[in-house]
Amino acid sequence: MKRFYPMMVDLTGRRCLVVGGGPVAERKTASMLEGGADVIVVSPDVTPGLQVWAEQGEITYHARPYRKGDAAGCTLVIAATDQEAVNRAVYEEAQACGAWINVVDRPDLCNFTVPSTLRRGQLQIAVSTGGASPTLAKKIRRELEKAYGPEYAVYLNLLKEMRQRIQETITDAAVRHQLMARLVDEEWMALCKNDPAEARRRMESWIEQAATAEISG
Ligand SMILES: C[C@@]1(CC(=O)O)c2cc3[nH]c(cc4nc(cc5[nH]c(cc(n2)[C@H]1CCC(=O)O)[C@@](C)(CC(=O)O)[C@@H]5CCC(=O)O)C(CC(=O)O)=C4CCC(=O)O)c(CCC(=O)O)c3CC(=O)O
Ligand SMILES: NC(=O)C1=CN([C@@H]2O[C@H](COP(=O)(O)OP(=O)(O)OC[C@H]3O[C@@H](n4cnc5c(N)ncnc54)[C@H](O)[C@@H]3O)[C@@H](O)[C@H]2O)C=CC1
């Protein structure tokens, strides 16, 4: 059994190769684009979705079969064709040039996998089953979607802002930690959902009070 190390990677400006143009290639392309990658798709044909991205300049598309050398300079490589020999050749090249490789129908030829991911603004929750059952990963992602609605994007933005403010205005680390802990709370979350402007006002005045108390000793 393989073990995977979870991490969040910034793919901005990184060249990433997808070989194949079917629905699976489209899904992997979508998630790499969200990660900021410069995606190159090589395939004789592509889905309508990939075609649109090619026309809009979101991806670079080469309408031809894969050939050796396509993986040069790529950080991530995904082999998503339905041809075993082609996927194998892509794997060999990626291994030779030190790129991270995912062969979509061969978990044994993956040194990275793509988790099922829920996104709410800056919040991302990624689910992996280590390749055992992608369908279960998807089911869990859907359950999490109900528990973590779009309001989390708003709430998290506010937390980010307030955290910065706390770091700038409160010098005592213990007080900073206490304030942050108290902002992460169901009540704030509910207020944020119903009236984000009011949530912001209350958070601001609350932090201001704490800062004043700190100064006056
Ligand atoms: C190892 C891994 C490699 C990788 O692709 O990174 C892999 C491998 C394989 N998937 C297969 C099949 C399916 N995959 C999905 C769906 C997803 N697969 C994804 C990831 C992963 N799939 C990685 C492990 C993730 C983990 O650890 O859990 C998700 C999470 C992310 C994404 O793809 O973006 C995305 C859900 C996104 C979402 O909606 O949230 C569905 C369901 C569907 O499409 O509705 C089916 C059909 C049902 C079934 O077979 O279970 C097959 C058999 C192919 C065949 O038999 O032909 C293999 C190969 C094998 O297992 O041998
Ligand atoms: N990992 C995952 O999440 C999943 C993996 N799979 C597996 O992934 C593979 C791809 O699935 P789909 O996208 O549905 O397949 P598909 O059959 O729709 O697409 C295959 C694509 O590969 C292209 N292709 C064929 N030869 C090529 C070559 N020499 N160079 C470049 N491109 C070439 C085809 O033109 C086509 O665009 C299948 O083997 C399937 O079993 C299926 C479901 C999920």
Residues in helix, %: 40-55%
Radius of gyration: 22 Å
- What kind of sheet is the major sheet? 5 strands, parallel
Cα separation of the termini: 57 Å
User: Average pLDDT, to the nearest integer?
Assistant: 95
Number of separate structural domains: 3
Structural class: alpha/beta
N-to-C order of helices and strands? EHEHEEHEEEHHHHH
Residue stretches low in confidence (pLDDT < 50, at least 5 long) are: none
3D structure, described in words:
It contains eight helices and seven strands. Helix content is 49%, strand content 14%. It is an alpha/beta fold and 217 residues long. The protein has three domains: 1-114, Rossmann fold, CATH 3.40.50.720; 115-147; 151-215. The mean pLDDT is 95. The strands form two sheets. It has a five-stranded parallel beta sheet with strand order 3-2-1-4-5, sandwiched between helices. The protein has a two-stranded antiparallel ribbon with strand order 6-7. Strand 2 (38-42), helix 2 and strand 3 (60-62) form a beta-alpha-beta unit. The radius of gyration is 22 Å and the shape is elongated. The chain has helices at residues 23-34, 48-55, 84-97, 134-147, 151-169, 173-183, 186-194, 196-215; strands spanning 15-19, 38-42, 60-62, 76-79, 100-103, 116-120, 123-127. Helix 5 (151-169) crosses helix 7 (186-194) and helix 5 (151-169) packs parallel to helix 8 (196-215). The structure holds ligand SHN and 1,4-dihydronicotinamide adenine dinucleotide (NAI). 1,4-dihydronicotinamide adenine dinucleotide (NAI) binds next to helix 1.
